[in-house]
């Protein structure tokens, strides 16, 4: 006999996945956007699972997290109605909970890294929203790029300032990057010598360039033939673009190095995933932002709204991950099967609340299917999940299949009977509602509930 563990028996887990699939299909009959929420939930589960691995997997998970959040916000925003938006959220929650049933609860380490990635991505998304607002204020992407190239000023003075800033950024990144990131302890002395020599070379080259530009400018006053050369150099967008690219890359390296140094001593093990989280978050926010800005037809106002909302959602996600990490550490977290049941029940309630007709028809039938089938699947998932959790606690995940199949068949049969009963009740309500008074209708509902409840107690 295998020792008890926290994994559900395989047969029970498959039954829960099947129930979730049936409930999702039933919800999609009334709200097809539920299907759009499913890949979002799967992507979120993959991102959380990926950060609990090597640095490469951490970077991939950190990059995937903001992309999934942006896709989810876009899906909810394009839903059109609150009911459709809630249905998309239900689909995403259901998919995430099903992944929890299959692969288990996320570990405290995964939650800690997910929270860090969410916080980093939230800051970057907020910055991207501000950049989008700046682009809108500047008059468009092209105007903003031109303004960025000439940020240090026009003429020879602006070029000299840009040259000094680029050189200072290069020297800063040489001295801020931790030596352990680029060399081994046995070669530290040679690394220091090479770093100092390179910094000296950059400084000397900058001084020579400044001196040459100064001489050229003074010479153009004495020799008018040199004026076109000075104007070509100082007014060249290519020169300014090269200096801006070098400065931006160097400043990015400085930021990464500062993060690496700040967390260098904040780990109890041999690894720290902070650099991988930052690198992944930069890709996960930067690439969608660049694509959104470059796509024709997407206004900068829309981009700013999208990334601003993503910053808020990711900030809330950081808080949730931080709180949930403590809950998981105390072994007080809600089981994934309970989350599956809750998501299915919520979907049924949302679908039922959207019914606004009192006549029998195709639309009412679709609403009935989307209401009763998910609720029945939720009850099935809750009942079977409790049974599977008991097996996992008392026997283990390798429990015998036969009792599991018997319990799945019994609970599935009861749930299947409940669907037509609920459908008949809904049909009866639509028929009797115009003819019975409110007290009479309430009496019929109470009587039916008593009969169904008594039958349930007897068969149990």
From TrEMBL:
Organism of provenance: Natrinema altunense (strain JCM 12890 / CGMCC 1.3731 / AJ2)
The alphabetized UniProt keywords are:
Membrane, Transmembrane, Transmembrane helix
| Sequence intervals crossing the membrane | 12-28, 34-51, 58-78, 84-104, 116-135, 155-177, 198-226, 238-260, 272-298, 304-324, 336-355, 367-384, 405-432, 438-459
Name the chain's protein.
Uncharacterized protein
- The highest taxon in the source lineage is Archaea
